[in-house]
């Protein structure tokens, strides 16, 4: 059975997300009919997630800084994203019950100064992913 809880937990940690061009809610995520697959045997990311990009619409219960964009894209063996100033990515492994293990997150080191607070916001976003990777 596909373990939706890990995916939902990650998306909840990223707050209220929406697919690149479509608004969705946490309820929609829970009710989404991800078909069961034999991914536990093949250790592949659920095909419904591959090559999808999610756009963060809030963080820590509040809106993103004006003019910033935070994304997370899923690929068969990695996550890739943009955290408001820097790109980031991490290899992933798929384990039994389709649990996603996020490996060490790599990030660019641009020192963006605008908008004010963007690096703090980025740190919160990357920290959420890092906490998720260590909780599995």
TrEMBL record:
Compositionally biased region (Acidic residues): 117-127
InterPro entries attached to this UniProt entry: DUF306_Meta_HslJ, HslJ-like_sf
Pfam families xref list: META
Residue ranges of the region described as Disordered: 116-136
Residue intervals of the DUF306 domain: 48-121
Protein name listed in UniProt: DUF306 domain-containing protein
Organism field: marine sediment metagenome
């Amino acid at each position: 059975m596909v373990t939706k809880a890990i995916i939902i937990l990650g998306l909840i940690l990223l707050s209220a997300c929406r697919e690149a061009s479509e608004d969705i809610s946490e309820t929609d995520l829970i009710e989404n009919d991800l078909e069961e697959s034999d991914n536990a045997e093949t250790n592949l990311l659920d095909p419904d997630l591959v090559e999808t990009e999610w756009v963060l619409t809030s963080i820590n219960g509040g809106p993103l800084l004006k003019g910033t964009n935070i994304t997370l894209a899923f690929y068969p063996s990695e996550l890739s994203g943009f955290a408001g100033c820097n790109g980031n990515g991490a290899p992933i492994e798929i384990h039994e019950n389709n649990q996603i293990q996020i490996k060490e997150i790599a990030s660019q080191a641009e020192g963006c100064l605008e908008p004010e607070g963007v690096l703090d916001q980025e740190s919160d976003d990357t920290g959420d992913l890092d906490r998720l990777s260590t909780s599995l």
